[in-house]
Write a structure and sequence with these properties.
- The protein has about 290 residues and is an alpha/beta fold.
- Helix content is about 35%, strand content about 15%.
- Strands 1, 2, 3, 4, 5, 6, 7, 10 and 11 form a nine-stranded mixed beta sheet that branches. Strands 8-9 form a two-stranded antiparallel sheet.
- Strand 10, helix 9 (about 240-250) and strand 11 (about 255-260) form a beta-alpha-beta unit.
- The longest helix has 24 residues, at about 260-285.
- It starts with 12 loop residues before the first helix and ends in an 8-residue tail after the last helix.
- The relative contact order is 0.14.
């Protein structure tokens, strides 16, 4: 690997560490505020998260916009494909319309809109952002990458997605950019872990894996051990319950991707303090003398 192709890690050291615990606000913390909105990202920042995570589709006029689903129906007051509306039209959609807490829709009519990726990167210049490229179209990744480059944000961005073709295109266009494993790469690594083997010559810098998907647990401790032997950190989503957080941390997972950063941030900080105290205590313990 040449110097020009080394990954950008200036602001990503904590997320790529095998020792530091980090909290990543999934869609900004979708359990606390309307997902993928400025309201969610702003609130996550007040909680002290280590990174923001968002999803990207293209508008009708080709602008990367931050929304999870390919349609507007689940999260907004509009309906139909995201790609059917221009970025200006998406800017008038109420993205807080469907968000309810205890049956109350407190974010309806509160100027929660579908933000552009440009707006998100501009608003949060001092924190890493994990961008998931939705779908299988490499053009979405190319447009998102153009926004990242326009802001010179490569040192604080991780690009991910399910599609291997999309991530392969990203790596070809920007070999210095940090990417997570595609679904194909994650499945290969899982299979190898069954035999105690670490991932083979990965093109990615980290795993961002679902712990459970459609009711099925996706990985266990041996996978994390194999990844760590390959010096590859494992992040996992969507982790909202403290018991799951503690279990995964005990396995060696270092990134908690969560809809409840209000729970994860203090838990991860407490665990980091506990680890630091244990290391200090061990260092202060004098070595035992051998018996005469």
């Amino acid at each position: 690997m040449t110097a020009e192709s080394l990954p950008c890690v200036a602001m990503l050291d904590a997320l790529l560490s095998l020792d530091r615990l980090t909290t990543i606000a999934h869609r900004g913390g979708a359990g606390l505020r309307p997902e993928n909105t400025i309201a969610a990202f702003d609130h996550a920042m007040t909680l002290g998260v280590d990174a923001l995570e968002c999803d990207v589709h293209l508008s009708r006029d080709g602008e990367p916009v931050v929304i999870h689903d390919p349609t507007l129906d689940r999260t907004t007051d509009a309906a139909g494909p995201v790609a059917a509306l221009t970025v200006a039209e998406l800017g008038r959609v109420d993205a807080g319309y469907r968000f309810a807490v205890d049956g109350a829709y407190a974010y309806r009519g509160t100027e929660c809109r579908v933000p552009t990726l440009d707006a998100v990167i501009t608003r949060y210049p001092a924190i890493p952002i994990v961008i998931e490229i939705k779908g299988d179209n490499p053009d979405v990744a190319a447009r998102a990458l153009a926004v990242v480059r326009a802001h010179r944000a490569e040192p604080r961005v991780i690009l991910g997605g399910f599609s291997h073709a999309v991530l392969a295109a990203v790596r070809a266009a920007a070999p210095h950019l940090v990417t997570s494993a595609s679904s194909v790469e994650a499945r290969s690594a899982l299979t190898r872990s069954y035999f105690g083997l670490r991932p083979a010559r990965p093109a990615f810098q980290l795993f961002q894996m679902p712990f459970r998907f459609r009711g099925r647990q996706m990985f266990r401790r041996p996978f994390v051990r194999a990844a760590r032997r390959g010096r590859i950190p494992v992040h996992s989503w969507i982790i909202d319950h403290p018991d799951d957080m503690r279990r995964l941390i005990a396995w060696g997972v270092t990134g908690i991707i969560t809809d409840r950063p209000d729970v994860a941030v203090p838990l991860c900080r407490d665990e980091d303090r506990r680890r630091a105290a244990a290391i200090s205590a061990h260092a202060a313990t004098p070595p035992r003398r051998a018996a005469p």
